[in-house]
Write a structure and sequence with these properties.
Length: about 220
């Protein structure tokens, strides 16, 4: 397995050189969320990773099913990411519990609970909007979007709706990598800790080989 991390503006600063020195060859960067503007550190982080020879990168988008799937996909695409660029693994849509923050930047537990109740009460619409997002992304880029999620979350909120054609990035803080709820196969990515190497970053693995990871990033084997 190949070690991977993911980052957004909520993570503490961590020099890219230090990641590389610790054996990290790939990072997922948060691009945007719902209908909001780009994550405030995305552009700088993305360009830094893009300029680092041999370092692979991927962009993820936090999905909020209270909004239209195509509109959110359009927002993702508006970030001007070349998903076919050498070294880019394409896109990922983050499908998990919603968190609503108040004006002070802290989580609002009442609004957070209400948002997730809305998701639970509107399953059919939620599934349709996610499929619309995935269809929009595939039509625009020619690539199947990776889905980041939890098995139990998809079972509870999406009634185990299958997405067999989409690579998956599963979060599971257990000893062994879980299999996908919909196909019974290993996911392409596995998030196994929220505290990689003593940091506040998530630790992940690509479950294949380095050659397979490079191939996904458009890098041909020698």
């Amino acid at each position: 397995m190949i070690p991977v991390v993911d980052r957004s503006h909520r993570n503490d600063p961590y020099p890219l050189r230090m990641l590389i020195d610790k054996g990290i060859k790939f990072c997922w960067y948060k691009a945007a969320q719902a209908l909001q503007s780009a994550d405030k550190v995305f552009n700088d982080s993305w360009q830094e990773a893009k300029a680092q020879a041999g370092f692979l990168r991927g962009a993820y988008f936090f999905f909020d099913p209270r909004y239209g799937g195509k509109e959110q996909c359009d927002n993702f695409l508006a970030q001007q990411i070349n998903f076919s660029g050498i070294g880019c693994l394409g896109g990922c849509v983050d499908v998990e519990d919603l968190v609503v923050f108040g004006p002070d930047g802290k989580e609002d537990p009442v609004e957070t609970a209400a948002a997730n109740k809305w998701v639970a009460d509107n399953t059919s619409l939620v599934i349709l909007r996610l499929r619309n997002f995935l269809d929009c992304f595939k039509e625009a880029t020619g690539r199947d979007c990776v889905i980041y999620t939890y098995n139990n979350y998809m079972r509870e909120y999406y009634r185990s709706a299958p997405f067999p054609n989409n690579p998956m990035w599963l979060s599971s803080l257990q000893k062994n990598c879980p299999v996908r709820y919909d196909t019974g196969k290993l996911p392409e990515f596995w998030q196994y800790t929220y505290n990689w190497s003593g940091s506040d970053m998530d630790g992940n693995y690509f479950t294949g080989t380095m050659d397979e990871l490079n191939a996904l990033a458009g890098i041909k084997a020698n």
